[in-house]
Structures are given as C-alpha cells and as structure tokens.
Specification:
Length: 343
C-alpha cells in the first residue's frame, strides 16, 4: 500500500512538472513560430495548463515573449521584412490568377487533370460504369504570335455488361482497361481581345485494351473552343466532330459530334459554381438513340498547398436525353494540378 501511494505521488508529480513545462514552452513561443490565431485563442488544453498547473511559469514566459505578430508585420525604418501576414494579399492574387487560368481550356499553363466519372443506372440491373480520365495539358510557343495547346485524353474504363447463360439467365460481368485516346491540338493567338479562342485537329486513336472499351477506329476531325472571362467568371463553348478514316472493317464507322457549353460564376475565397454539361453528344451513324444531353453542374475551388496550386471540382449531371439502357445520371469528381508560369 505504501509503495502504491509513493508511486501515485511520484506519477502526479511528474505529470504536474510535464504540464508546467508544456505550458511554459507553449506560451513562450515567438509569434514567428506559432500562428497568430493560435496565440490569441489558446485551446482548451492550453487554458487548463495555464490556469491550473503552471500559472507562475506562464506569467514568466509571457513577460519575456516577443511582440504579437500584428506589430511584427509592420516594417520598421531599418528595413525589416514583412511577415506572412503581409503576404496574404499576394496569396489571394495568386489564387485568383490560378482560378482564372483553371477555367480557361486554352490557358498558357501546364495542368494535369484527373477526372473520375460514375455513370449510374446502366441496363436492367442498374450497373455502374466508371471512366477515369487523365488529360494532361501542355502549352507550347509558336513564335511571337501563337501558342499550341495540347490535351491528351486517356480514359481508363470499367464497362459492365451481361452475358446470357444456357438457362436463359444473365451473368453480370464487366471489363476493365484502357479506352481509346483522344489527342487534341489547339492553335491559339497569344494576344486576344475580350474573346479567347483556339482551333485545331482532334484525333481518335484505337488504343482500347478490349473491344468493348473502344470503337476500333482511327478518326480525325476539327475542334474549336471560344470563351470570355468577364468580372463574374467564365463563359464559353467547346465543340468538335470526329470521323473515322481507318480501322477494323467489322466495326461501325464513327461520325460523332461533341458540344460542351460552360458557365462559371466566381465566389469569394477562390470558390466558384459551374453550370455546364459533361458533353452533349450525337452519333450521326444512327437515327435511334442518337443524342445524349446531360445538364448539371457543381462547386469548385482553387487551393494552394505550399507552392502547388490545385483545382478541385464536383459535378452532378442528369441525362435528360439518352438511348435506352444507358446511364440516366452521372457523378464526377475532378482534381487538377496547376503549374502557372512564374512571374
């Protein structure tokens, strides 16, 4: 019993010393080491440590602490450098510039979008198709007056399907792999007025790893994008059409139209709302079930993690027109790495 009491007293003493040292070291930190918001509003644990366990140590530490961050942010006559508090306007300007470029498909900026699409309600069993798009964008300078912006869309697809069995039942199966790539090239003038635009070729490359994941044809066609960026945000349209020119003879010809109008309304703190489609498409090779017309939108925001800017988006699309058995609605998430040109 005596040993237990000694152990308890010893443990309580060690705990009290640890709390006192923690409080003293936490409150004695310089504003350069601790964010100003944490100094002005200590946590519940810090308050308990200060007012219960180590009041004397805290008073001593506060007496020797450096001035608050707000006073440090003011440069003196001797030319002191401003702290991070003065850098916030520059950070806001950088976010705004990144947001503007992220909403421009032909911006002279390297970006690497990763886009995940879930297409729900496919077939009588309500299966889900998954399309993961990797579509890096690289701009190149063509002399003094022109840029060429390359976008290489690489889809990775899970395609569900049903296999009829001998007894008449359907075996639910699926294929996963690489789809057909779509390289795109936009020639855009470096100097433009209120409307920016780009035009060039788009290709369909039969790279699918399984026949159900692609169209089996090599195609080519024109693509065009135009947009304006007034004070409220961005408004524009992207359109193209692809015709097959080579490929497997036993696969259907490709004559596919694509139209994507988009509208972004900017909000505070680098947020924005998007009203757009995931792409209105038409298959000119058929008269039944020709059109797919999705309408929707969602929020997005540009963030900065250190020196890295990223654009994060979520969308819901309802297909108001679609062929029977195809998806009636889609959920999309997108994450884009942005690499603005250094100033």
């Amino acid at each position: 019993m005596k040993i237990n009491k000694v152990q308890k007293l010893f443990s309580i003493g060690i705990l009290g010393i640890w709390i006192a040292l923690s409080a003293a070291s936490g409150w004695a930190q310089s504003p350069r080491d601790t964010p100003a918001a944490m100094q002005e509003q200590p946590t519940v644990q810090q308050q308990q440590s200060v007012y219960v366990a180590a009041a004397a140590a805290v008073e001593e530490a506060q007496a020797t602490a450096e001035p608050p961050a707000a006073t440090q942010a003011q440069p003196t006559a001797q030319g002191q450098q401003p702290t991070s508090a003065a850098a916030s306007p520059a950070n806001a300007a950088a976010l705004e510039s990144a947001r503007k470029a992220a909403q421009n498909p032909i911006a002279s900026m390297i970006s690497i979008p990763f886009q995940e699409n879930w297409n729900f309600g496919i077939g009588p069993s309500d299966r889900v198709q998954n399309v993961f798009n990797i579509q890096p964008v690289f701009p190149f300078s063509l002399g003094e007056n022109w840029n060429v912006i390359t976008r290489w869309v690489t889809p990775i697809i899970y395609q569900p399907y049903a296999v009829p069995e001998a007894d008449g039942s359907l075996n639910q199966a699926g294929s996963y792999g690489l789809g057909d790539m779509q390289p795109q090239f936009y020639f855009s003038p470096k100097k433009s007025g209120a409307v920016s635009w780009g035009a060039g070729p788009i290709f369909l490359v039969p790279t699918a790893s399984y026949h159900l994941l692609g169209q089996g044809k090599f195609g080519i066609g024109p693509t065009f994008v135009a947009l304006a960026q007034p004070k409220f945000g961005t408004i524009g349209v992207l359109v193209n059409n692809i015709w097959s020119v080579a490929g497997h003879e036993n696969r259907k010809d490709v004559n596919q139209f694509y139209l994507q109008p988009f509208l972004n309304y900017n909000l505070k703190h680098a947020w924005y709302l998007s009203l757009q489609t995931s792409g209105i498409t038409a298959n000119w090779e058929t008269t039944k079930g020709r059109w797919v017309v999705p309408i929707g939108g969602g929020p997005g925001r540009v963030w900065r993690f250190g020196h890295q800017a990223v654009n994060v988006q979520t969308f819901f699309f309802g297909n108001v027109v679609h062929p029977p058995g195809t998806s009636p609605w889609t959920f999309r998430m997108a994450f884009t790495l942005l690499f603005p040109k250094p100033r």
